[in-house]
Amino acid sequence: MAKNKQSFTWVAIILNVLTVAMELAWILIYKERMKLEMLTMFTNLSNLVCAVSCILYVVYASRKIDKGKEIPSWLVTFRFLSTVCMVMTSLTVGLILSFMESPFPEGHIRLMLSGYLLFVHTICPILSSVSFLFFEKDTFPFKWRTVLKGMIPVVGYAVVSVLMNLFRLWDGPYPFLKVYDQPIWMSFAWLLILMGAGFVFSLGVTWIKSIACRNTGAG
Predict the structure, then answer these.
(1) How many CB atoms are located within 10 Å of the residue 26 CB?
(2) What is the pLDDT along the chain (219 residues), one digit of tens a residue?
(3) Domain locations in the chain as residue ranges
(4) Could you tell me where the DSSP H helices lie in 68-143?
(5) In sequence order, what are the residues at sequence separation of 6 or more whose Cβ sits closer than 8 angstroms to the Cβ of residue 77?
(6) Which of 23, 65, 89, 207 is 20 to 30 A from 199, alpha carbon to alpha carbon?
(7) Residues 83 and 132 sit within 8 Å (Cβ to Cβ)
């Protein structure tokens, strides 16, 4: 069992290294447009947080293999939160923004398979999520407070972005956040949808992760 868990850890390290490499590729491609405004976008924030969590995981996982020290609980939580954000990013683009951009499949090709968007909306979310859910074998029992904890980044971003749009400090950056371009009820509806999506994605990540860990004896 110990050798099996170590094999999982090696795969997780490889997937995290690949994720960081893809994030660096995104930054190199996107560097000409790197401005402070990029931090208003949930996609960019999620990918930057994901890159940091992956780097930290590689460091601590390497120490785990070398010295047998377990991954600290705060890092497991950090990886969990970054995974929820990445799932939110990818599925929001795939299920909402791509259809708002253009009819299927043009919108999906443009937002999920073109240029740097291929990295931030598709490749990085898949690599990081697969690693966390199936190969990072750390104790992760199902708890409802964990599900609620996973909603914090999504709800926080939704509330802050709506307020920033209300005060005209931001313009979007997403169409459904432009409160002055739509009826008030629609802004509230979108806010509820985002919070609901955050809950569903957090629940899904928590459930899948807890089952995967339980099946390998990680708890």
Answers:
(1) 24
(2) 456 678 899 999 999 999 999 999 988 887 766 676 788 999 999 999 999 999 999 999 999 988 888 899 999 999 999 999 999 999 999 998 899 888 888 999 999 999 889 999 999 999 999 999 999 988 788 899 999 999 999 999 998 999 999 999 998 888 889 999 999 899 889 889 989 999 999 999 999 999 998 876 555
(3) 2-215
(4) 73-92, 98-101, 106-112, 117-118, 124-130
(5) 149
(6) 23
(7) yes
